[in-house]
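Record Family 43 glycosylhydrolase, 707 aa.
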Amino acid sequence: MIFAQATAKKKVTLSTSREKYQGYLFAYFTGNRKSEEAIRFAISIDGYHYRALNNNEPIVSSEKISSTGGVRDPHILRGADGKTFYMVATDMVSAHGWNSNRAMVLLKSTDLVNWTSSVVNIQKRFPGNDSLLRVWAPQTIYYAEKKKYMVYFSLKHGNQPDKIYYAYANNDFTDLETAPVQLFYSPDNAACIDGDIEIKDGKYYLFFKTEDRLPGIKVAVSNKLTEGYVMQSDNYVQQTKSPVEGAGTFKLNDGSGYVLMYDMYTSGKYQFTKTTDFKSFSVIDQDIAMNFHPRHGTVMPVTTEEIKRLSKEWMSYDAVITNVANAQIKKINIVLDTATKTLTLPVLPGTDLKNFDPGFVTFPGITVTAATRDFSSGGVRCTVAIAGKGSQSYTVKAVENHNPAIAGLYADPDIIFAEKTGRFYMFPTSDGFNGWSGTYFKSFSSPDLVNWKDEGVILQLGKDVSWAKSRAWAPCIIERKVNGQYKYYYYFCAEAKIGVAVSDNPTGPFVDLGQPLISKRPEVITRGGQTIDPDVFQDPQTGKCYLYWGNGYMAGAELNDDMISLKTETIKDFTPDSTYREGTHVFYRNGIYYFMWSEDDTRDPNYRVRYGMSTSPMGPMKIPVSNLVVARKDASGIYGTGHNSTIQVPGKDEWYLVYHRFNYPNGIKMGGDAGFNREVCIDKMEFNPDGTIKQVVPTHEGIKPVK
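=>
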């Protein structure tokens, strides 16, 4: 056993009264990098809206409290006396491997600020654990009968599946005084991890993750804490088909029910659900807001005085001023210049800036005052005050920028003007999922390319597409009139294959073909690459339709009249030169066929668009000497400008480039993760007299509404 002091002592004032809980404390870690494997805190008033403390940095050093240098899966508990707090965490650095840890960390505090800690190595501490491979996800519960704190966790020995064990902590919470005893194992003899026990109506509900036929979260119930658990049912309680782990439950302070949350660890998201009976769970993600991305954590109710104490210690003025709730603000695009203390709030089109309330979210002991609600003439002086800490003033501006064109994280945009409805429609990749692991496609509509309406999900992998469950990427669409009726043919990527779905409306519902249209690289292509990024094009000269696709190569072929099959004999290699990476887009203007493509990697700030010209939709193409369409603009903080489409205003020689870029302003700081945290932009595209394209300047301002 190793003992270490977590932090130097800080002077705090404690509240001895047991006042009613008025908020919540969320303990979590953030990722699989060593710097992310540390305990972080966030607070909330309502259990739905959370704000990271300490600028989302650790509240205690993993190096000081652990044997591996990293901790994961923190669980926090208020003690039976109401004023002592206990945390336990997995002592582990994932880079060493998933079977590399044998220990857990125990922490104790009387103020939530200063923590003492110790390491318990199960293999060294208790004989008979020579075959132990890992110790995961400990949690603590008070056993009133024994007046002891019981720590429960999963252990894996040799080839045996993970099982949940328990042991009792000593009075100082610095060690386990009893050897681990098996608490529960999966009836299917499958791995059983991430236990979380909640008490309701005198019964103990054990939520756990099982690695059985379809891994997920199940519930076992007992009348006793340490024995007798039986399955509530064979049903999984998570409300997603994505992989999940780290179930955490907490009771809402208003008595309206319980929250079950879990880590969608392959999706880069957390899902929150609400229940009153632990049997039926409704998703409440639409009500949740966080300025951080948690991994496997837990939530504990806290008092007003505890929130004030936490805020005084770890809430920064910058965190307060950027915490705004007004729905008109594009929250992922907020920019804070910390040097000049200037905050820029990008707002949606049509926002009334003469009477604008940013909706600053505050906590007990924190206030924000604004000199005026009129933001139409420039910056407004706003002051943040934190009780016991002081105050800080900022200049706050509200600006109507039209880029990103659609609020949120989206990429690979395709766009059309639908004759049937007289509106523009955007079809992007739904972005923001770790490793491009999205599972659904959405559409957006607009009368003017500026004001966009979210039309919702139009195609869901696994549900609407039987042959694929993940990697929903890079769609494209075409409108055609068939026997006097409009039809919409939607081509999309899933699991590195290209599918097609059909609808009578641009917003669906779409019916999938039932199998991939293209499932492998054509034989005529001799270079490597993925079968992704389709683009559909109708030649206005002949009426024939073509499909282009490829990553690492540019392939193309004529479509049959049914639009859901290829004339395979026409498949051709169009790869222009070494700058081609992916994202082919073809359009026609004044007798010229333009072939566009993206260069470099979508994770690279240099990701950009180039083009070639041809007199035929099947090539060959001529590449202009200066063929750059759009590229990064460092002075404006715009990077990764690529994978585009174009749109012509009907009846006019007026063109616009639709593309994605890194999220602004955070993308450039994300490293490779910027490649799946992208947003869609629109800027004007113009031509030289000889038909060549003038290089487009990417902007934040975007375009004005078109008519």
